[in-house]
Amino acid sequence: MSPHSPADAPAIELKGISKAFGPVQANKDISMRVMPGTIHGIIGENGAGKSTLMSILYGFYKADAGEVFISGKKTEIPDSQAAIRAGIGMVFQHFKLVQNFTVLENVILGAEDGGLLRPSLAKARGVLKQLAAEYELSVDPDTQVQHLSVGHQQRVEILKALYREADILILDEPTGVLTPAEADHLFRILDNLRAEGKTIILITHKLREIMEITDTVSVMRRGEMTATVKTAETSPEQLAELMVGRKVLLRVDKTPAKPGAKVLEVENLRLVDDKGVERLRGIDLEVRAGEILGIAGVAGNGQSELLEVLGGYATATGTVRVNGAAMPLSGPGSDGQSRRACGIAHVPEDRQHEGLIMPYTAWENTAFGYHRDPALQKGLLMDNAAIRADAAAKMDRFDVRPPDPTLAARNFSGGNQQKIVLAREIERNPDILLVGQPTRGVDIGAIEFIHQQIVRLRDAGKAILLVSVELDEIFSLSDRIAVMFDGRIMGVRDPAETDQTELGLLMAGITEKPDRPLIDAVDAKLDAKEAREAGHG
Amino acid sequence: MDRMPNWADAVLVPLISLLLAAILSAGVILAIGESPVDAFSLMVEGALMRSAGWGYTLYYATNFIFTGLAVSVAFHARLFNIGGEGQAMLGGLGVALVCLYIPWPHWSLAIVAGAVGAALFGALWALVPAYLQAKRGSHIVITTIMFNFIAAALLNYVLVNLLRPVGAMDPATARFPDAVHLPTFQDMFSTAATPLFRGAPANVSFFLALLACGLVWLLIWRTRLGYEIRAFGHSDSAARYAGISPVRITVVTMLISGGLAGMMAVNTTMGEAERLVMNATEGAGFIGIAVALMGRNHPIGVLLAAILFGFLYQGGAELALWTNIPRELIVVIQALVILFTGALDNMVRMPLERAFLAGRKRRA
């Protein structure tokens, strides 16, 4: 074979790709080779430039410099149509599906063969059937997308790409919204695709996934590609170090909990959202002083609503007792101010839209939520000097960088923003700390620090309710684990006596051994949930 | 960081926008066969070179300060109060009732009561749209616009049927008693030897407007309420998280906004006309939107922008008086200023920002 024959040319080769957004260099001189028939992982922290790179490959952005070769041939990709013609398919983190179209209609959308739909639909039906058999990619072609579970919707996205005859598939953080069982199934699909000679690029921030499925992995840091290694020849520790640029501790050091009195008791908590869908369907739980109760579950199973009710900005029915005293769940006394007065502090899931006012300075943010504290007032005015001094001290203790209280919150990195929120809530010395997704979008270096602070608060005898979609985080922090699915607690487990598999099944709503193949049981549960939420259950 | 310095944002951008508007206006004046240089010097001459001109410019500016502040305060809570016009009309009613039905011994007491009456009526007129927005989600832009029409109709009814003196032909109240006459600039600053501000309507209300600027600044940047208003304006989800009630903030902010708009009536009704007439507001409620946009919702910016628009108003009146340039063209020029400083803001800002960043990179 000649050296330029397609067979041994890389499926994708990038040479010297650079892209700047204003003063920010998102990609700096990136070169990468992906061999055909392999799964290539790209790993890096938020803002490392992974998504920008893939957007260039898919024609969303134009690179400032550099070349793209597809199967050895130099290719210009000015738009996504060109990318599709070059055989590239993309599965976005946020799906691009028309909710009230059927699967079939979504698949042919933009790839119709003519003015009339019927022939295209018939053809697509045949192709889907074949793909389903080939890759374990079965989805009912006549169901409306809004009635499908998230995992099934993702399959539709993959089918869309395959229907357009993609040879190269890019998946952007594909497991973020999946249950572990669904993620396993996705990996089997990817395995099958690889076996058929497809090339797959997997973008993720989860080290475990990289180790599990990829052949090679490229690490990005601050817009540069710092290393490309064979997965078999590396370790999670080494990858973490490459991502962050220094050694990091992946496990949390903590002593066994010494649980005390019941601080937070929740009974039969129910919440119906404004669309009339019941999001919390009778939650019972308790958190004791000096323990961390971790709530595991896939996003969208009622965890956010649980935090909102406890934090005082969603109304519900049922009973919530703090230190034995019942709290109003609607009407006067159920707002965030009353909750704070009862000793509940809350690090919300979405720090950019809830925890912080992004245009406010860091010092203004350190008072947010506690700004009515009389200690922060001077007569009719706010005592800004006192707030500023207090902010500087907090930022110092929580190692916020840069330590400049006059900088707007949006100018801090995700990890430092989270430290500002954490400092504000923890330093109020609350009885209960609600923490949602404490390390989402936070760089690995800061994760370590944030976890230490949460454990430190537990050791000070406080009750902590932790919600996270990252099972690793749940495992390493929690003293007890409650699993939520579809607005209910499916079970509470001791982390020492359970494993990812058991929790994974609970996260899909399966409490006992099913009498049929596992993935089918999971699918059935998830589809039922989706249908209930769409109002057809 | 990745932004241009504040002074450039606050000063350079509006100045360049203004320059562009001026150039385009000059083109329009050229197109109808008049000389832009002559026109401009006439405007400056008439509005700024004589004390009487200033007397008119500052009189208009007083109105625009109040309505501009009204729009600014609401905008800090991301509420677009288009109802300044109607709120100011109702403010006029408040002033008239205070002046006509309570015997005042001295103007200094009357102006305080008049301001309170105006603010009260203006605030009440903003209350309904605020409540509908907060509780029912009815968009405040729509409801405040509708309330402008209702205000005009209501005022018409009240003037014609209730307050018009017996036998009078025009829809206006009786003249206010002499005791509530507010000192004009002429009263205050003229001496026998040097008459100043002769015949100009500017009056002591201008200082009330300056006071309002200071109070709004304190409110927005130094009080707890201002902190909550701004927080709510930036992110209502974060405000909910912090336990800030959206209903309360919406209603309170709109009350303050409506009150400020209403207080404009102290200037027009008490200070100038000395009776309540139809259409006393003359569109100042709408100019307030432009003033707030141009003034970046900051009291100092509002003050400067209000003076600029006062100049445009007075200069425009001079043009209409002394040249063949029709009055409508003045409206065109004002519209161009609004267009460039408000709507097309980014057209100037983005190239300027790029230029700044490029300059910084070169230096680095």
Automatic annotation (TrEMBL), chain A:
One example GO MF annotation: ATP binding
Keyword Magnesium annotated: no
Family annotation (CDD domains): ABC_Carb_Monos_I (cd03216), ABC_Carb_Monos_II (cd03215)
Entry superkingdom: Bacteria
Protein's cellular compartments: Cell membrane
Entry keyword annotation includes Ribosomal protein: no
SMART domains, per database record: AAA (SM00382)
Domain named ABC transporter: residues: 12-247, 264-511
Annotated transmembrane regions: none
InterPro entries, A to Z: AAA+_ATPase, ABC_carbohydrate_import_ATPase, ABC_transporter-like_ATP-bd, ABC_transporter-like_CS, P-loop_NTPase
Chief localisation class: membrane
Alphabetic keyword roster: ATP-binding, Cell membrane, Membrane, Nucleotide-binding, Repeat, Sugar transport, Translocase, Transport
Gene Ontology cellular component annotations, sorted alphabetically: plasma membrane
Membrane-topology annotation of the record: Peripheral membrane protein
Family matches, as PANTHER family: CARBOHYDRATE TRANSPORT ATP-BINDING PROTEIN MG119-RELATED, GUANOSINE IMPORT ATP-BINDING PROTEIN NUPO
Family, per entry: Belongs to the ABC transporter superfamily.
Protein name: ABC transporter ATP-binding protein
Taxonomy of the source species: Bacteria, Pseudomonadati, Pseudomonadota, Alphaproteobacteria, Rhodobacterales
Automatic annotation (TrEMBL), chain B:
Pfam family, one: BPD_transp_2
Transmembrane segments: 12-33, 53-75, 87-104, 110-128, 140-160, 204-221, 241-264, 276-295, 302-323, 329-348
Protein keywords: Cell membrane, Membrane, Transmembrane, Transmembrane helix
One GO cellular component term: plasma membrane
Subcellular location: Cell membrane
GO molecular-function term, one example from the UniProt record: transmembrane transporter activity
Name listed for the protein in its UniProt record: ABC transporter permease
Source organism phylogeny: Bacteria, Pseudomonadati, Pseudomonadota, Alphaproteobacteria, Rhodobacterales
